[in-house]
Amino acid sequence: MHALANWWDGIELWVAGLAFIPQFVVVLAVTVPLAFGLAWLLDRGLAITLHLLGRDRRTGAGEATPDVETGGVT
Questions:
Q1: Which of 2, 11, 22, 73 is the most exposed place for a label (fewest CB within 10 A)?
Q2: Strands (E) located in 1-74
Q3: What is the pTM of this model?
Q4: Per-residue model confidence as pLDDT tens digits over 60-70
Q5: What is the crossing angle of helices 20-53 and 2-17, to 10°?
């Protein structure tokens, strides 16, 4: 655990030592993909959970429903 904390401190100091624009680019290059990945995982997890609970059908006419098996919308 101490090694992980030292590694994280090293990365944090490296990013903090950069000028503003490179710092901004590095943070966005890491944060944006992580945010999209986390959102996708949460969406899939919720879709699967609702499917298993039988709560994945929508009542409105003409609305698309998520297709859990293919990951698309039908």
A1: 2
A2: 66-67, 72-73
A3: 0.58
A4: 555 566 666 66
A5: 130
